[in-house]
Structures are given as structure tokens and as C-alpha cells.
Write a structure and sequence with these properties.
The complex is a heterodimer of chains A (342) and B (275).
Chain A lengths: L1 H10 L12 H4 L1 H29 L1 E2 L7 E2 L3 H8 L1 H34 L4 H13 L2 H11 L6 H8 L11 H30 L2 H9 L4 H12 L1 H15 L4 H7 L15 H11 L3 H26 L3 H29 L1
Chain B lengths: L1 H33 L2 H4 L12 H11 L2 H32 L5 H10 L9 H11 L5 H5 L6 H14 L2 H9 L4 H30 L2 H6 L8 H12 L3 H35 L2
The chains are: A mainly alpha (342), B mainly alpha (275).
Chain lengths: 342, 275
């Protein structure tokens, strides 16, 4: 079918309207039908809502009554809203507190997994299980572990003589608790992806480094990390997008208290604030405006990630690393040949 | 050699410590679910599995319509999974194996939709569904997610390599139309890919919290996650009962995961490498 379509377009350009060769679009009807469900659903539940949300954000609306045009007022208010800025701060702090240890630990685990020859399947499943466990259930468990009065963590800290810490009532305690849940759920996931990246690096490179007498630490930082850049970029971008949308952890931890962000709103994230504005306070216009602010933040952070980790010099660096290794192999071979001659 | 062996041993120690951290919350969930609440709230805390598990589970069933919520969640998860598998694989088959006018443009649009965060359109989506009269109904959980860009992208990568062009040509010679070609040539070859996408989708829908929290407004028709959160909100003081509920909600999912865990993890990693 594809071949005939091409032939038809080649011989008869658009000017030919005779009915004899079947229209190329008509020929492709089954394919259009096949891809249409996604596009139809996206138009209704994706594209339209996005455009509609611009419209809503220019209004004051409780979701039921009349929409009142307010122009850019929601955005103006957003920029001067201390709570909104606080949620950005909270979200970014939680994101840093979770992403940095998460990706570093994942890299260490992936490296250990890569070298382990026994129990591989067991390890992978054990590390991946947290990721398929529901956030709600596990947040409840961590909520009890971090509980101020009878939490396991404080019991442990007291037993070694370090005070009880007010995990769930102090600003930093709350953020650390949320970041811990996020880290716990996603370390294994990222480790599995890093492991795939590690396995894609050819064994020759490591062999060459070994012959060169490189220590494991040198090998890790000089070869593994540079070669893994694209994979690291992937995990950094996905954890940024996920991290900026944190919601469930803080909502479940503090759902039954008066503020959904916990004491002092210290755990109120951007999405929590969106949810609170739109679906608790019925300020739909403001909720839509927060949605757009979130979108801009995600794009911004993704660009920063790209610049820091990947971006334009990514390929150059990988190539440079590869060249360095090639040179080493060549030198090694020359040395060995020299030794053989001797 | 002994240095090598030492390094392997250290590696295993590190990995085992990680496994302990990874699995400890599950153990702790069982400990809390099997003791009584007063037992939990003592110092020093009880660290071992108790004998009150079934009693606590019974209390969960008394307080919320656990099996009703579970059934609702199961129907939603299965519904989305079946539709996603069908629509995504069909679209992926067309994108991967047929050259039709506008294909590349359509695929580029599909990839661009990745960039849009779901939260951006949370408010208007809710309004749209309210307009349709779908709020509180299963349709709100199933229809919007019935086809997705991720699945199509992923299946297309899979289909490109897995389906030989000769098989499609042969089917055409036999007079099979596009849909028949999809059924007889595409589907059988795509089966391993479908297994991954199916588990992935099922787990995601089962665990979703924000969307059902917003659209399932009828307190008698809550998904498991929302019901569990509510159990905590209302009966939060009875910790061991809440933990029994959490445990009951987690077990089926871990079961589904363990069935296909081995190839699932491998497929997920392979998919990430393709981005």
C-alpha cells in the first residue's frame, strides 16, 4: 500500500483530480482511524483544557456561578501572593532534598548491581518494589515512623540519646519527612535505569582503565559518569518534572489537619496550593493561574537541567572520553608489543 | 584475587543494606497492622509481628466499603489498561509500519504532548467532565486516560524492530486489510511489549490519587487510594487499623507486579534508554 501511494504522488501531482488513482489520503484512512483515538482524546481532555485554562485564568470564577472577567489580575495577585512564593520555596527545597540523595544513591546502587553476579534478579525486584507501592499507603507508614511522640525514628534517636525531633511540626522536619518518602520510592527506579546505562558501556573501556591501573573511584568518576550523561539527564529531567508536582505525600501526611500543608504550611507544595485554591476554596481562576505558573517553572527547570548535565556539549564530552580511552588502549597495546619484542 | 573478592563482598553488603531499607517499611506496616494501637503507642515500641492482624482487618471492613472500593479501582484499572493496550498498540502499529501522509507531523505532535504537565489542565479538565456530567462516574476515571502518548511512543519503538515488513507484505498479498494485518501480524509479535505496558498502566491507575480525589465526589464510590486516605482522616487515631487497610490495599498490586517483575523491570530500563 505504501509503495503504490508513493508511486501515485510521484506521477500525478496535486493538480490531477481524476478519480482513477485512489486518493492517497483515502488510501491511508485505516491508518488515520488507527491513530485517531489518541488525538481525539487529547483534543478533548488535553488541548482543549489547556486553552480553556488560559481563559479561566483571566476570570474570577467559583466553578458554578457567572465567570467574571478580571484580565491579568489573577497573575498579578499570584506574583504578590506570599503563600504562592512559599509553596515554590517548599517545593524546590523538597525537590533538592529528595533528588540529590536519590540520584547519588541510585548511581551507587546501580554500580554495585552492575558488579554483582549473584542474586541479581532478587536485588532488582527488592529495589523496585517501593516504586510500585501506592504513595498513600507508604506515606501512612512513614507518617508513623516520623511521628513526633511515638514514632519509630524518635524512639531510636532517644535510645541513642539524641533528643526527640519534632519531625511533623517543624518546617525542616516536614520537608525532610516528605523528601525521605520521595527518595525511598524512586531510588530503585532510577538505579534500574542507571544499571541499563552502565550495561550499555562496552566492557573494553573498563578493561582499558584497569590495564591503566585506574582505581575504582577514578574509573567511576572519569569513565562511568561521563559516559552516563544522557541517562543521567533523562533521570534528572523526569525527577524534576515529578518533583515539582509533589502532592500526595504532603496531602496524606496532613490531610486531617486544618491546613493541607501541615503546620505553618511548611509542607504546602505548588500542586497542593493549586488543589487547595481550586477544589477546596473554589477559586478556579486562581487555580488555573497557578497551573500556568507551574508549567513555566517546569520548563525553566528542565532547561536548567539540560544546560547543567546535557545540552550541546554532551556529545563532545562523551566523544572526548571515548577518544581518551582509545588513546590509552593504543598506548597499552604499543607497550605490550614492546614487551613482547623484548 | 582476594582484593577482588573483598570488593564483591563489600558490594553485596551495600546492596543488602539497601534492600533492608527498601523492604523495612513493608515489615513495619505488617508490625503495626498486627499489633493493637495501644501497643504501637508505647515506649519502647513493639518491633515484632503481633497477633491482631485479622482483628484489625475486620475493623477496616466494618469502617469502609473496602471491597466496594477495591472493585471500583479494579474496574477502572482494568478498563484503562485494556483500552490503552488496544488504542496504543493500534496507533503504534500504524506509526511504525505504514507510510501515510502527515505521519511524521502527527507523531511530532504526539511527542510534543509529553511536555504538558497534567496539573496544568486539572481545573479545566474537571470543568469539562462536569459539563459532560461524568463527575462521580467511572467514565471520568477511564475515558480520559484511554490512550496515551507514552504508550504509543513506547510501543512504536518496540513495533519498529519487532515486526518484520515481510509478514505485513505477505498478509497484504493474502488480501488482509489494515485491521486484519494488525490482528494477525502485529498483535502476536507485540505481546511482550503489551505485557509491559499493561502492568505499567495498571499500576499507575491503581495508585493514582489526585485525579480520583477530584472527580470521584460520591463518598460511596471512592477508589482504594482515596478511601484509604479517608480511613486515615476519620479513624486516624486507630493506627493499627489504618495500617491493616494500607496493607490490604498494597498486597494485590505487589502480586500483579511480582507476576511479571523480571521482564517488566528489563523492559522499563530498555524503554528509558530509548529516549
Amino acid at each position: 500500500m505504501a509503495v503504490t501511494t508513493k508511486a501515485v504522488t510521484a506521477v500525478t501531482p496535486a493538480t490531477d483530480t481524476s478519480e482513477k488513482p485512489p486518493n492517497k489520503y483515502k488510501l491511508a484512512l485505516p491508518q488515520y482511524a488507527a491513530v485517531s483515538p489518541f488525538f481525539i482524546l487529547f483534543a478533548i481532555f488535553g488541548a482543549f483544557p489547556v486553552l480553556f485554562s488560559i481563559w479561566i485564568s483571566f476570570h474570577s470564577w467559583d466553578g458554578i456561578g457567572q465567570m467574571k472577567w478580571v484580565g491579568l489580575e489573577q497573575y498579578h495577585y499570584l506574583l504578590t501572593d506570599a503563600t504562592f512564593w512559599k509553596t515554590i520555596g517548599n517545593t524546590v527545597i523538597i525537590w533538592v532534598l529528595s533528588t540529590v540523595p536519590m540520584l547519588l544513591l541510585a548511581l551507587v546502587i546501580a554500580n554495585a548491581l552492575h558488579n554483582a553476579t549473584r542474586l541479581r534478579t532478587f536485588y532488582r525486584i527488592a529495589y523496585f518494589i517501593p516504586n510500585v507501592t501506592s504513595v498513600v499507603a507508604i506515606t501512612l507508614v512513614f507518617g508513623s515512623i516520623f511521628s513526633n511522640n511515638f514514632g519509630l525514628l524518635n524512639a531510636f534517636l532517644q535510645s541513642i540519646g539524641v533528643g526527640p525531633v519534632a519531625w511533623l511540626t517543624s518546617p525542616w522536619g516536614i520537608k525532610i519527612a516528605i523528601a525521605t518518602i520521595v527518595t525511598w520510592r524512586w531510588v530503585g527506579y532510577n538505579a534500574i535505569i542507571y544499571l541499563a546505562g552502565l550495561q550499555a558501556i562496552s566492557a573494553d573501556v573498563y578493561e582499558a582503565a584497569k590495564m591503566d591501573g585506574a582505581s575504582p573511584r577514578q574509573t567511576f568518576w572519569r569513565i562511568t559518569v561521563p559516559m552516563m550523561r544522557p541517562v543521567i539527564l533523562f533521570t534528572a529531567v523526569t525527577s524534576t518534572i515529578g518533583g515539582l508536582q509533589i502532592f500526595t505525600e504532603s496531602r496524606v501526611l496532613f490531610g486531617d489537619t486544618s491546613s493541607i500543608g501541615g503546620p505553618g504550611d511548611a509542607g504546602l507544595t505548588i500542586v497542593s496550593y493549586l488543589y487547595q485554591s481550586a477544589f477546596i476554596k473554589n477559586q478556579f481562576g486562581y487555580g488555573a493561574a497557578i497551573g500556568w505558573a507551574l508549567f513555566i517553572l517546569i520548563v525553566l527547570f528542565s532547561i536548567i537541567n539540560w544546560r547543567l548535565i546535557g545540552g550541546n556539549d554532551d556529545e563532545r564530552l562523551t566523544r572526548r572520553a571515548a577518544r581518551r580511552v582509545e588513546r590509552k588502549i593504543a598506548a597499552q597495546n604499543a607497550k605490550r608489543e614492546a614487551a613482547d619484542v623484548r | 584475587m582476594s582484593v577482588e573478592r573483598l570488593r564483591t563482598a563489600v558490594g553485596h553488603v551495600v546492596l543488602m543494606l539497601g534492600v533492608l531499607v527498601s523492604l523495612f517499611p513493608f515489615y513495619w506496616m505488617v508490625v503495626m497492622a498486627s499489633n493493637t494501637t495501644p501497643d504501637i503507642f508505647t515506649y519502647p515500641p513493639k518491633l515484632f509481628i503481633g497477633s491482631h492482624l485479622f482483628e484489625n482487618m475486620g475493623k477496616v471492613l466494618d469502617n469502609i466499603d473496602f471491597f466496594g472500593s477495591m472493585l471500583l479501582t479494579l474496574i477502572a484499572s482494568l478498563g484503562v489498561t485494556v483500552l490503552v493496550l488496544f488504542f496504543d498498540s493500534l496507533a503504534a502499529f500504524a506509526f511504525a509500519k505504514y507510510d501515510f501522509p502527515g505521519r511524521n507531523v502527527l507523531f511530532a505532535i504526539l511527542l510534543a504532548t509529553f511536555m504538558i504537565p497534567t496539573q496544568l489542565s486539572l481545573v479545566p479538565q474537571f470543568v469539562t467532565l462536569a459539563e459532560f456530567g461524568w463527575i462521580g462516574s467511572l467514565k471520568a476515571l477511564i475515558i480520559p486516560g484511554a490512550a496515551n502518548a507514552f504508550g504509543i511512543f513506547w510501543m512504536r519503538q518496540y513495533a519498529k524492530g519487532a515486526i518484520p515488513d515481510e509478514l505485513i507484505s505477505a498478509a497484504k498479498v493474502d488480501g488482509a486489510g489494515f485491521f486484519r494485518q494488525y490482528l494477525t501480524v502485529g498483535l502476536p509479535v507485540l505481546r511482550p511489549g503489551l505485557a509491559f505496558l499493561g502492568i505499567f498502566t495498571f499500576i499507575n491507575v491503581w495508585n493514582d490519587y489526585l485525579w480520583p480525589l477530584i472527580v470521584m465526589t460520591d463518598p460511596n464510590r471512592l477508589t482504594l487510594q482515596v478511601a484509604l486516605d479517608q480511613l486515615n482522616g476519620i479513624y486516624g487515631t486507630d493506627y493499627s487499623m489504618v495500617m491493616a487497610g494500607a496493607l490490604m490495599s498494597v498486597i494485590p498490586l505487589i502480586g500483579v507486579f511480582l507476576i511479571g517483575a523480571r521482564s517488566f523491570i528489563a523492559d522499563l530500563a530498555a524503554g528509558a534508554m530509548k529516549f
